[in-house]
Amino acid sequence: MAAGGGLSRSERKAAERVRRLREEQQRERLRQVSRILRKAATERSAEEGRLLAESEDLVTELQGRSRRREGLKRRQEEVCDDPEELRRKVQELAGAVRNAKYLVVYTGAGISTRPINPRL
């Protein structure tokens, strides 16, 4: 230890190397677990099964990430309703617009910001 109770430069460098090495090992473990999870369960070796069992927290995290990613993909898919369902949704929207005391519409560029009086 250096005078004054702090770590010496060489001790700080050694601690930083240990920290970086630990982070790299964690990233590599994450990559391994991710690769194994992409395989079908029947295609995994006993060693891979052991690694998954030892890494329950990583497995849980990666499965959660996968579920969130799939959910985002599903939300981005275009939905094409059949004509009757579309008609029902349009009528519901029209009723909500008619009955609204105040109406706010979020749009893209190019729409006028002037208030519109529907009674005119």
Order of helices and strands: HHHH
The first-to-last residue Cα distance is: 83 Å
What structural category characterises the helix and strand content?
mainly alpha
What portion of residues is helical?
Answer: 55-70%
**Strand count, sense and closure of the main sheet?**
none
- Total helical segments: 4
Radius of gyration: 29 Å
- Strand percentage, roughly? under 5%
Residue runs with pLDDT of under 50 for 5 or more positions: none
Number of DSSP E strands: 0
Q: Look at the structure and give the mean pLDDT.
A: 88
Shape: elongated
What's this entry about, in short?
The protein is 64% helix and 0% strand. With 120 residues, it is an all-alpha fold.
Strand and helix layout:
Layout: H1 9-38, H2 46-54, H3 56-76, H4 83-99
Would you write up a description of this structure?
- InterPro entries: DHS-like_NAD/FAD-binding_dom.
- This is Sirtuin 7.
- By secondary structure, the protein is an all-alpha fold.
- The protein contains four helices and no strands.
- It is elongated, with a radius of gyration of 29 Å.
